């Protein structure tokens, strides 16, 4: 099995309701990692004075940067890791800001998610045409092609009807 086949499958067509939930889940965190202006912009977003971003951040990576740990892959271990990442007003992830918000239940999968997140690149969230700093929840779905689906996976495989 080659490395590309071992890449985790990341759902790219997330329904608007899930995206809206991500926006609703934004919190002010890691303010010490950003400058004063970014902190003020974040506070305005979350205090309601600036409102929600007009545009959510968009991942620019053509392929998800997450690599299945070989031992977990060999054992067909699956799970969902949810990361909390801070994206600054330029679309960069603040160094050392990423942490596991919800564990997959497997330390190797969670660690691989954090390591892979360092390669994520984003177009920043925007409000009134200006980049704004935000913190988001970012799901990583670890699925082995030869393992049975996990409970709840049917929502990931729904096809859209016109």
One letter per element, helices H and strands E, the order comes to HHHEHEEHEEEE
Q: Quickly name the level 1 CATH class.
A: Alpha Beta
DSSP strand content: 15-25%
Overall form: elongated
Query: Which blocks of ≥5 consecutive residues have pLDDT under 50?
Result: 1-49
Stated plainly, the CATH topology is called: TolA/TonB C-terminal domain
Mean pLDDT: 75
The percentage helix is: 25-40%
Main sheet summary: 3 strands, antiparallel
Radius of gyration: 17 Å
* Structure summary, number of beta strands: 7
Number of helices: 5
Which structural class do the helices and strands define? alpha+beta
Any idea how many domains? Answer: 1
Detailed description of the structure:
The protein has a single domain (3-145), classed as TonB (TolA/TonB C-terminal domain, 2-Layer Sandwich). Residues 1-49 have low confidence and may be disordered. A hairpin with a 2-residue loop joins β5 and β6 (130-132). It contains five helices and seven strands; from the N terminus they run αααβαββαββββ. It is 25% helix and 20% strand. The strands form three sheets. A three-stranded antiparallel β-sheet has the order 3-2-7, with helices on one face. The chain is α+β, with helices and mostly antiparallel strands. The protein is elongated and about 45 Å long.
Task: Compose a concise summary of this entry.
The protein is α+β, with helices and mostly antiparallel strands and 162 residues long. It is 25% helix and 20% strand.
Keywords, separated by commas or semicolons:
162 residues, TolA/TonB C-terminal domain, three-stranded antiparallel beta sheet, two-stranded antiparallel ribbon, disordered N terminus
